């Protein structure tokens, strides 16, 4: 698969088109600046991987092959929550661009960006409550607290070369995998009371989410600004020690000196990237991502045939193929 080619999901194409229309309708705000900020976020596009996964699962588990209105709304809510988290992330990490366009705090101000993120979280909560399913409300609401937990864990470990892979995976779960895992589970909760089905899709989402984050962190080192839509090396600059760097530290302990100095200039960041590329750090991170992809796929194979989960497999392969 071409790494630049996002797979087409014909089975949910109509639903995805409607989702893009609905997202803009759902974030209409009375104040023009708040509306402008929200509109810019969704106009910037994105692959919509999270709602895509939700819609694929909804169709897979449906006896009639139809996706319910509640599941479609959940897909929209998930994307709004994800977008809100990006707004706050960009402020914390001081990112200048996102998806190739200027970040909200760059266009407006930090204050407006914080309010825009809060507004999106509030909107998602309102639509979530209107699903009238208390169990779904509980599981998705926890995701928002997980975001905060992940940010705190990341901040505590900033520029800490003693961080372990276990610490990194835990932080990655809170920041990325929790939303995907809980959304996958919530999708099944809107269709079935079968606990085994719910837990299987939770595991699928969890491992897909972890793989996605690991691949993102690899791309931050080997990718270009054009591909990433934001400056490469952002994690290193902000002291977020990710899988490739953690693995590289096992081979090159001299990296500790650069980490202790907090990469105080661009030359240091370039040096760290060069050192990482000359170790097995990137390959070990790739292997770790593959392991999580394999666990996710195996979870599906226990219940469904390869033909039935074709679209979920395409998502899995796309996530992995981004680094090739």
What does this structure look like?
With 324 residues, the chain is mainly alpha-helical. 72% of the residues lie in helices and 1% in strands. It contains 16 helices and two strands. The protein has helices spanning 13-26, 32-43, 49-61, 69-93, 104-107, 110-129, 134-156, 165-189, 195-222, 225-228, 234-237, 243-251, 255-260, 266-277, 281-301, 310-321; strands at 97-98, 101-102. It has a two-stranded antiparallel ribbon. β1 and β2 (101-102) form a beta hairpin. The longest helix is centred in the middle third of the chain and has 28 residues, at 195-222.
Give the gist of this structure:
This is Prenyl transferase. The protein has 324 residues and is an all-alpha fold.
What is the helix fraction of residues, given as a range? Answer: over 70%
Distance between the termini: 9 Å
The total of helices stands at 16
Using only C-alpha atoms, the radius of gyration works out to 20 Å
Strand order of the largest sheet: 1-2
> What is the number of E strands?
2
Summarize the topology.
Blueprint: H1 13-26, H2 32-43, H3 49-61, H4 69-93, E1 97-98, E2 101-102, H5 104-107, H6 110-129, H7 134-156, H8 165-189, H9 195-222, H10 225-228, H11 234-237, H12 243-251, H13 255-260, H14 266-277, H15 281-301, H16 310-321
Helix pairs in contact: 1-4, 2-6, 3-4, 3-8, 4-6, 4-7, 4-8, 6-7, 7-8, 8-9, 9-15, 12-15, 15-16
